[in-house]
Amino acid sequence: MNMNSLPLPRLERVARGNLIFHTDRALLEATGIHAGFLERTGGMSEGAFASLNLATTVGDDPAVVSANRALVAKELTGDGAFPFVVPRQVHETTLVEIDDASPSALEAARQAAEAGADGILVHTAGVGALLNFADCVPIIIASPDKSFAVVHAGWRGVYAQIAPLAIERLSARGVPASELNVYIGAYIHAECFEVSDEVHRQFCEKFGEGCAADESHIDLGWVLRNDLARVGVAQERIADLDVCTVCDQKHFFSFRGADGVCGRHGAVAFRKA
């Protein structure tokens, strides 16, 4: 491992105020990248959205969601002094890249993200990315050059291979995929991910029978790990929280588990300098 390599990834469950992050403290020490997956607790939302709902699109009070996001910013860095880019997630493969933290560049990035995107790639200090989840796969990718990506991969995104696309975009800047760290948060696991016959057939035709847990369930994690290996990500550089959102609704939101009415937990990353 050369002197510029990242430490091998690991996820630790860390309390910051009332919030719970699953984060890599060694990554922060090596690069200054604050990155983590949030649990659903510690926020101000109520009812089906209790309590750290970070999405404005699910019927929660927008003022409360804003307060929840501000709380995340404060607890993540200690002072909350950074702007988020939060995309309108559309289950496609559009990635917004940010190279400049100036107000004009930030506004342009926000407009592009609001037009529809499922991944934010950040190559500069001073800008954070926040994406929201409730069964879809949260992915954070970190590079030794201090760039990072936060990616939303529902089954459509996994099928369309958004994660390998993000890897290829980061690698295009001169860092081989084998040197990138990949972190996978909580998502719906194979035992709970029942799909239609058509979706099952499409996955098996594209990725092989290994992606099928049985005749009606698909293993998104299997597909994702194989796709990451295909584009050169080293197995030892993948840290998977290995939690099913449907099975652990105490700590994470689940769209399926809540019959479609719930909040969204977050994946977030930011670098101060």
Overview of the structural elements:
By secondary structure, this protein is of the alpha+beta class. The protein has a single domain, classed as CNF1/YfiH-like putative cysteine hydrolases, CATH 3.60.140. The protein is built from seven helices and twelve strands. The strands form two sheets. It has a six-stranded mixed β-sheet. Strand 8 and strand 9 form a beta hairpin.
Let me know the number of strands.
12
Q: What string gives the helices and strands in order? A: EEHEHEEHEEEEHHEHHEE
Compute the gyration radius: what is it?
A: 17 Å
The CATH architecture term is 4-Layer Sandwich
Q: What does the overall shape look like?
A: globular
By CATH, the superfamily comes out as CNF1/YfiH-like putative cysteine hydrolases
CATH topology: CNF1/YfiH-like putative cysteine hydrolases
Tally of domains: 1
Strand fraction: 15-25%
Number of helices in the DSSP assignment: 7
Q: Please give the largest β-sheet.
A: 6 strands, mixed
Structural class: alpha+beta
Main β-sheet, spatial strand arrangement: 1-2-3-12-7-4
Q: On the 0-100 scale, what is the average pLDDT?
A: 96
Measured distance between first and last alpha carbons: 24 Å
- Uncertain segments: none
What is the CATH first-level class name? Alpha Beta
Summary tags:
CNF1/YfiH-like putative cysteine hydrolases, 6-stranded mixed β-sheet, alpha+beta, 273 residues, 7 helices, 12 strands
Question: Nutshell version of this structure?
Answer:
Helices cover 27% and strands 21% of the residues. β1 and β2 (19-23) form a beta hairpin. It has helices spanning 25-31, 62-77, 103-114, 155-160, 162-171, 197-207, 220-230, and strands at residues 12-16, 19-23, 33-38, 84-85, 95-98, 119-122, 128-133, 137-142, 148-153, 181-184, 238-240, 265-271.
